[in-house]
Amino acid sequence: MFKAAMLLSHQYNITIEGEFIGWQEEQTTGNIIDAMHIMCHAVSASNVVGVIGPRLSREAQVIAPFGEKLGIPIISYSATNPDLSDENAYPNFHRTVASDFAAARALAKLFIRYNWTSCTIIYQNDAFGIGGANGISKAFNDSRLTVSQMIVFDIAIRSIRGDLKSLLVNAPTRMVIVWADTDYTYLILQEALDSNVVGPQFTWILSITISLNYFNQAFYENLIGMFFIEPAVGSIVNEPINATLLDAAYNIWNQYEPESFPGSMNVDNYALFAFDATWTLIQSLQQLCASKINTSSSCLSLIESSDCLDRRFIHSKLLLDTVSGTEFLGVSGPIQFSDNVTDRITGLYYSAKNAQPSSNGLNFVPVLEYIHPKDWRIPIKENVIVWSGRTLTPPSNRALLKGVNLRIGIIESVPFTIVEKDIDPSGQTTIKYSGYVLDLIKLLRNKMKFIPIIELVPSNMTYDEFVRSVSTGVYDIAIGDVTVTSARSKYVDFSNAIFDNSLRIIIRTTSTVKVDLFSFLKPFSNNLWLLFFGTLIYAGILIYIMERKDNEVLQNRSILNQIFMSIWYSFGNVVGYGVDFHIATSAGRLLTVGLYILGLILVASYTANLASDLTIAKTNNIISGIDDIKSGKIPFNRIGIFAGSSIEDFYLREISNGVRNFLPLYSYDEIDRSLLAGIIDASFQDSGLAIYATNNIYCNLTLVGNDFDKSAYGIVMPQRWLYAQDLDVNILQLKEDGSLENLRQTWFAMRQCPDSSGISTEIGIEATSGLFLIFAVISILSLILFAWKKRQNIKICLFQLIYRKKSSVETNDSMNRRSSKASEQSQNYQIELPDISHF
């Protein structure tokens, strides 16, 4: 396209001082010394007033200063190193291709689009590779993305520095960006394929196009899903271009070199950038010479010298200013340069292509397009993205545990890890694991597809030793009822919480209830009771004084009876019962108001305190919570603590100030049995374990007080573990979809012990027995008083009963005597009656 632009200028009759612009074409090899030699030879042999190129950034970094020395513009079409944007360092340099920093910003937006957060960069160690890698690092840092590592491809030895497989596998990211030329990219990819670090485990993004069919077909599945991002022209992203100029250039190319013309659809984008670079210089020269220059010499005059470094273009500043101000619609899009940088500032486009299988092998298919400074978008002709592994789901950038053998250490702790021996009919014994931890491992395995290798730790291993076994490499991870603590975090990392935890106090259940006959009197102190009854007597005497002459009820009674009636009146008004007579005086009414007020407060206070005391009376545990432990209500040597655990750390930190005055125990089962045996009186346990034990195993143990020292269980991981993010994300998903809560309900909501909570809320007879005893005494006294009051009536009734009985006896004797007398008379006067039986 360089030649096409020059020939088109002839066709358009663009001349300088009546002559067509001539050109000279040279081919560089990438060696900067060769490039300097070619440049020096060219400017010595002819009047060179501008350079289109060079192709490589490392060449441009040398040729541009050479051009500055000569005072001529250097306009590149493919040198993308961001360092070349510095106008102060390269004042005579311009380019029609976008800087790699623009590409880096496009890459950052691509990562944000697919929620990728980090990458590995493989770059060649020259100006192009180093500049691109630095540009990506800056753009990623600006977007809060991470470059996990940068791997060097040494162009001198044409190989990666280090073990590529080890570097990639041990990196926390699975996104790989390659910033290298075509030849080096082939070498890098081939080494990656041989090391099996391409797809589907890794997603690769290339900065330059390559032919995927170059590789062995056995690797095609690994290459599917790869990305290639290249600078694009306006026609690819449906932005305006100079179609007339483009068609004319294609016609000239096809006319003069038909054997090299690939067809209008297959022309490389860099060829179009080369045309616009050439056309920029042509228009600048034409504009320079068309302007009025105050000199008699040619507008293209140079200071001649046999030494190429001593030659100088006379109108250098005018020409460079003209180039900087050039603005037109080119074949790649709008062309415009900045006053502050050497870069093109308009018409910056990128195309993202995806490696997909086709009938003729693998091809890159355009799937996204980018217009600076906007965002990526789907092209009008949409193509579905095929990701690594032939999936339509965007991959994660993090290292995944899929297919990884994972050594998992577990520690026996019911119900988190339950160990059971199963004997089959043949007598063979197998160990079976179950519990919260085993169910969690199953959930994670199903989601993450790792291969678990589960190992039970020795029974005598402490929790601190269990945690350290991960940092020493005995296990890859450890799962159990392991509390996250700052001390442990110094040598291991923890996953997101798998179980919310706290501490509880566990003690023996107290079955006996202490009988207190006078518990109903406890709401008031003895002094208050004395004051209360004294006030009633005092108020009764006042009522007697105020009412005895004016109140008909109190008249015609004895003084003692009047006083008792007045005290009865005071008592009835205080307790709200009421009395059977009314006050007749104003002073009495005022005193009654005082009694009402006194009764309102005292009765309400008594009722509230009595309810509280009776409720508290249902529990008679030796302690009520952690404050009783701190105050020493239980001897410290009667407190059992799990040695080598986070509970021990809490006790030393919060209870004993570092003094080991507790009884060390080495398993939760030992703690529970020690409580039942009376060896200890209390212990601290993690809430989940304590609830399960008291609900299902040890029914004679109970929990007291509220929970304290809230914490969480986490999976123990090595520090900076490769798969930490993958594990955390999946644990968070299990929490969000309710799976962790379902596990908690499955293992901790069950209950086999009787539920004593309902019984403990009832007020028993024992708590009120004294009240009923007092009532019984009062009732007996009432009956005695009643009998005493009715003693005269009882005497009369008894006399009447005796009299009636005596009268009845005398009457019976009289009747008996009369009957006997009549009998005698009947014997004296018997009459003989005839026998009539025969009738």
TrEMBL record:
Membrane-spanning ranges: 528-546, 558-579, 591-611, 770-788
Gene3D superfamilies membership: 1.10.287.70, 3.40.50.2300, Periplasmic binding protein-like II
Statement: the UniProt record of this protein carries the keyword Oxidoreductase: no
Keyword terms: Glycoprotein, Ion channel, Ion transport, Ligand-gated ion channel, Membrane, Postsynaptic cell membrane, Receptor, Synapse, Transmembrane, Transmembrane helix, Transport
Domain of life: Eukaryota
Annotated GO MF terms: G protein-coupled receptor activity; ligand-gated monoatomic ion channel activity
Signal peptide annotation: none
Subcellular location: Membrane; Postsynaptic cell membrane
Ionotropic glutamate receptor C-terminal domain span: 405-750
Protein name per Swiss-Prot or TrEMBL: Ionotropic glutamate receptor C-terminal domain-containing protein
Organism whose genome encodes this protein: Rotaria sordida
Lineage: Eukaryota, Metazoa, Spiralia, Gnathifera, Rotifera
